[in-house]
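User: Hi! Is it possible to get a structure for several chains at once, not just one? Here's what I have:
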Amino acid sequence: MKLLLVEDSERLQRSLSTGLKKHGFAVDQAFDGEQALSYIAVNQYDAIILDLMLPKIDGLTVLSKLRSDGKDCHVLILSANDQTEDRVKGLDLGADDYLVKPFAFDELVSRLRALNRRRSGVKNPVIEIDGIKVDSVARQVLFDEKQISLTPHEYQLLEFLARRRGRVFSHDQLIDQLYDAGSYVTRNAVEAHVSALRKRLNSAGAPKLVQTRRGFGYLIE
Amino acid sequence: MYSIRNRLNYTIVASMIVVLAITAVFLYVRVAGHVEAVFDGSLLNKAHSLISLTELDEEGLEFDFAEEGVMLEFQGGESPEYYQLWEQGVDLLIKSPSLDEADLPRMKTGLGSHQYADLQLPDKRAGRLIEINFMPRIEIEDDPDDEDYGVEVPPGKPVTMVYARERESLDDTLFIIGATIFGVIMIVLVISGLLVWRLVGRGLSPLSNLARQVSAIDESNLDARLIHEGDQSVEIAPIENQLNHLLERLQSAFEREKRFSANAAHELRTPLAELKTLAEVAKMVPDDQEQVLGFFNDVGEISGQMEKVVITLLELARSEAGLLHSDPEDIVLSRYCDEVWLQAVNGGGNGKSLVKHIPEGLVINTDREKLGMILSNLFINAVSYSPDQAEIEITAEIRNDNVVLEVKNASTDLKPEDVLHMKDRFWRKQKVQGDNSHSGLGLTLVEALAKIMKLDINLRLDNQQTFMVTISGFHPSLNQ
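Assistant: Yes, the chains can be modeled jointly so their relative placement is included. Here is the combined structure:
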């Protein structure tokens, strides 16, 4: 899941992006409204974590601008403003969720996962395909009730494709969706991750889930 | 709670009832008195006509009105009248045939006078009588050819005459007069009551309109203003204007309070969120020494920032509680400004410099510590909110035995309306990315300290380009 974290506090940026990356999110960071809009213009995000009191352009203006530009990514407002009218204003302008500072980090992660499930249309946090269970909360994969050990990148790739069954994703789309803007990831790296994922599933006796469409990309049918 | 309209209606109607009742009684008494007087006058006239038909001659008293065929009303019939005469008030002389066996009452009236009284007539009707005591007219024959000429007439004795007739016609007239007056009064009262109800309602409609508009205003629409419909009333206009001013102040205070809450929430919640996230994320990367060490540095910075906010808030609380006092001493202003500048920018200052226009050797007598806090806050703000390479100017002038200090800097994006909010707690024009040194309390503290030091502080923006803070009221040292 690819996120844009818009927050002017460098310290909060640092700790949040560390934690979110640890949970498998790809995180881009913007420190003011202007920077956020320029990121949004060129990248596809599953969700945006948006502070309201931002330098240059405030959060609500960023929100209304991205909605008026037709961007449908989920927006979670993360603000110190706890008044009902602030929440109502934010949600009415097109935000999908509102979390007041200070917050529990785990709650933020759960809300992001919930937004992701809403986006993919799969409500169950555990996706089961051909006996393989992908648990997005525990971030683990089971086959025959036995855990298959995956690296964070392999897990991300599997969960991403599992949530979007039947859709083909090219190398570039996978790089764009699974890795943050600061990461230098090549097509070869994606191929390596797909190959490693297949091997791990195969060694656990699981069916071959990830298919290749030559010239197009990868999918789970 | 009472209704002004109802109270006015009831009071006016009650007053009208009293006034109309008094008028009705007065009118009735006057009219009834007059009618009764006319009735009594007719009684007296009839009595006089009877007296004129009473004469004393040599044969004694003669009553011409008692002759047969004269004054038939005394004979009986449907509506008879009555008379009775006594000599010296005792001996019955004559009475009308209509009395039959009955007698009329006597009241012992003095000679030459008369009086009236009500009575019940022998035929059971209500009646009224007049009693007159008179000397009968003496008939002396002065015709020598008459056989009675020269005959001696016996001396006259006082005669008491009572004449009575029914008074039902009078009572009927009085009743009609009374009923007419009462009816007219009632109609006037009803019409007046309705008019009063309507007119009072119309008269109070601007007040009702005002009350309706005021009731519709709550905290969600404090931007609403009272508007008048039609002509402005002299009585309501000042109330409306004052209420509108009050609403403006209330709205302004409400918005200030909301801004304060939002700003305070931001200033206090954000560092808390940072601390909480740092703690939670640090647990996820216990083996990443570099990361954890960085987090500890962040915790230290956040603590310092929160400490600064808390100390400033405590200083403000102490100043408001009157716990801070001014402790003046002589200060060489130019040198002290340099010291405070160096401490404030702490070797930084982003290439910005302090330009002083302070007479060398100018010594002022003021509280060193508080002046330092004021200047430090002004310098930090000037450095943070001025363009790159800007010059921060400080000027000191002696005006009317007072030293006036002015700190000015080019501003980046200030607007005149911003100046109104600058002293509000936690107010900031815009956050500067990555700069957590400002909490929006600096100018609030400067104002509080200036108040303690009995200084006047004035903020202004010239041509939307230069922001100036003027502090006046410093005293030059007496030892200069």
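The longest strand of chain B covers residues 466-476. The domain at 4-175 of chain B is CATH 3.30.450 (Beta-Lactamase).

User: Great, thank you!
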